[in-house]
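Suppose you are handed a protein chain with no further information: no name, no annotation, nothing but its sequence. What can you learn? This example shows the usual starting point.
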Amino acid sequence: MSMIRDLRAVVRPSLRRNRTSFHAYDATRDPSASTAVVDCAVYRDGRRLEGGGCQTPHEAMLRVREGGGFAWIGLHEPTEQEFAGIAAEFGLHPLAVEDAVHAHQRPKLERYDDTLFTVFKTIHYVDHAELTATSEVVETGEVMVFTGRDFVITVRHGGKGSLRALRHGLQKDAELLAKGPSAVLHAIADHVVDGYIAVASAVQDDIDEVEIDVFSAPAKGSPRGSDAGRIYQLKREVLQFKRAVSPLLRPMQLLSERPMRLVDPDIQKYFRDVADHLARVQEEVIGFDELLNSILQANLAQATVAQNEDMRKITSWAAIIAVPTAVCGIYGMNFTHMPELAKLRGHFAEFLNHSSPERLGILYLTT
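A reasonable first move is to predict its three-dimensional structure. Written in structure tokens, the prediction is:
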């Protein structure tokens, strides 16, 4: 514990110095250049302030400190340089900042002093005309949420999973948004879990399709067991889905059960509903994994049965051909005394006597 206190003592002064030394963006920066900030607004009494779109997070925090409310800053795949000023402005912990910039994190909930850091894995279903051994079924992204007393910072990674519609929907519910940053955190969690439910339904359809194909009569020219590639690919995609869902259950349970200063008590009740939905999705994903295991084993068993049938056919034909092969082998040997050999010699001598020289020459050349 003493080592942690010493580390905090070192980190906090540096953050205070950084706050006074620079803002979120360089003043010389070209305003027309692309930026990682998607939206920046101040909310007071559940309503977005007119002109709430702020140029910089520093400006947003000035308005919050002057009149109350909270700031909501949304970013998309910021670089270290772009996020450094924001981290200093809001006093974000360096470890959480590193996770937010580099992404590829496991879903989790961490507390750093007066800030909650939550990581969500977003899942999106990839539409495909036909499921093949190389089809991409689900696409993942990430949403990181920094929740403080008077601010919410969302960092999104991935091409999909925009929070714009979520923000607009929340702005229509002033009563809920008046609960503060924890209301935004709940809305994001609910939005992500609702996405899980939709993806689970679509994946169930793919599994049903594969199951029907495995247990129905194979198409003409298609051998038994040819669906193994599709099943294995679908199993890999389900595993990716499982990695997004399972680790998030414990954080949602903590938010719904453990009192936290940064979470409004009224909002905490809603997290319980999110945790229940997430638990249901987790059960479905585990069921998908087990069902695919059974389908894959059945598919391999069918391939084995088909191979055994082919071997029985080959063995039967070999037994049929064995008898004439044995007769030809015996009578083809150069024995001195062989049944019917005298008759064969007589017929051959008669053939030679009645054949013309030209015919014998042709016989000689052909043999």
